[in-house]
Specification:
The protein is of the alpha+beta class and about 375 residues long. The protein contains nine helices and eleven strands. A six-stranded antiparallel sheet has the order 1-2-11-10-7-8. Strands 3-4-5-6-9 form a five-stranded antiparallel sheet, with helices on one face. α3 packs antiparallel against α4 and α8 crosses α9 (about 335-345).
Length: about 375
């Protein structure tokens, strides 16, 4: 997920960059020296009056007041030779300095409020989609999430891996839309999935529960809104039954996972059901497909933000063709895919991206810790 390291430091309560604090002092020294080197009939010292408002963007009220006081001394003391300010000129400079102090106070107050709001928002988003552990029961996991909307940790994609009485179950999905508008649907689906892990004996029953949840949310939104929304999602469900070297896969309109077996990579043949939330009549329930898992096998799940990403010429990202090469990267497959995707698209796709790599305990090398 996009972490705090990708956000400007001042959004997280850190002080402004060092250069912003040095710049006003450096400008003061440069102006004083420039005045000393210019003829006496040319006065540059009055440019010093602009320094307090500039300093207000890097210093607090006290630091800005110190800058204002230094400027007043330099302009008001004829013996220094920086300027020859009169009473009205000094009053104007003092008013500008006072304005700088007010700006610094307002900025400091707004920064504190912004840090508080951002901290609460990040805590709420991490409660919806917490970092994935390296191991859940016998299943090793690594994942990566990038939300399309800058400054957010959760968008329209989702994933989770949970252990329950029926084994380890994994979910990856993509809801309609992206960004903050889709976060409510993501939270509802993840909540239903975590309940289903404990209660439902079959992965198809998990899919049915998720479908009911989405249909209920659609009906509720229709009751409170004049314009009925169109909520739907594609999901892929995986179940690793306890004590068995196999995985059961249920697809609800989601792209099939990739199976990495040795140096070969292929799509897993699944029987896709319809996406969730469509409310289609008739027997359209998805079918669970069983896949034998051999030592060394890994399953790569992804959302369409990966495979539908385009380069500048309009070509789609060839995930299946790139995985055999990227699997040898020491940084880990998930991280390597993201870096390759970002290079392919020239900075990253415009859609949400979720990647999830799963393997049974002892299947292949232990994955390096991937940032989630």
């Amino acid at each position: 997920m996009r972490g705090q390291s990708e956000q400007p430091g001042w959004l997280r309560g850190k002080p402004p960059p060092v250069w912003t604090r040095i710049a006003p002092a450096a400008a003061l020294v440069v102006l004083v020296l420039a005045q000393a080197l210019t003829p006496g009939d040319v006065e540059l010292g009055y440019f010093l009056a602009a320094l307090p408002p500039v300093a207000a963007f890097a210093y607090g009220p006290a630091g800005t007041a110190c800058f204002a006081a230094v400027v007043l001394v330099l302009l008001g003391a004829p013996s220094i030779g920086v300027a020859h300010a009169r009473g009205s000129d000094l009053a104007t400079v003092a008013a500008v300095g006072l304005l700088g102090v007010v700006i610094a106070w307002v900025r400091r107050r707004r920064d504190a409020q912004l840090v508080t709001v951002r901290t609460v928002a990040e805590a709420a988003q991490l409660a919806i989609l917490p970092p994935l552990p390296e191991r859940v029961g016998p299943v090793r996991c690594s994942a990566l999430y990038r939300a399309a909307q800058r400054g957010t940790l959760v968008g329209g994609d989702l994933y989770d891996v949970r252990a329950g009485p029926y084994g380890v179950r994994a979910l990856i999905g993509d809801v309609q839309g992206h960004g903050l508008a889709a976060v409510g649907t993501v939270g509802a689906l993840l909540g239903a999935f975590r309940e289903a892990v404990l209660d439902d004996a079959e992965p198809t029953a998990v899919a049915a529960r998720l479908d009911r949840r989405l249909l209920a949310d659609t009906a509720h939104a229709t009751d409170v809104s004049a314009e009925p929304p169109e909520l739907f999602a594609t999901v892929m469900l995986l179940e690793f039954p306890p004590g068995l070297d196999l995985v059961r896969i249920v697809s609800c309109g989601h792209p099939p996972p990739l199976l990495l077996r040795g140096s070969a990579v292929r799509e897993v043949a699944v029987e896709p059901g319809p996406p969730l939330g469509l409310g289609l009549p008739g027997p359209v329930a998805p079918v669970a497909v069983e896949l034998r898992v051999l030592p060394g096998d890994r399953l790569l799940l992804y959302t369409d933000g990966v495979t539908e990403a385009r380069d500048r010429t309009g070509h789609f990202y060839p995930l299946a063709a790139r995985v055999p090469v990227l699997a040898r990267e020491p940084a880990g497959l998930v991280r390597a895919v993201w870096q390759d995707l970002a290079a392919f698209t020239g900075g990253g796709p415009r859609d949400d991206v979720a990647l999830l790599l799963l393997s049974l305990d002892g299947a292949g090398p232990a994955p390096s810790r991937e940032p989630t």
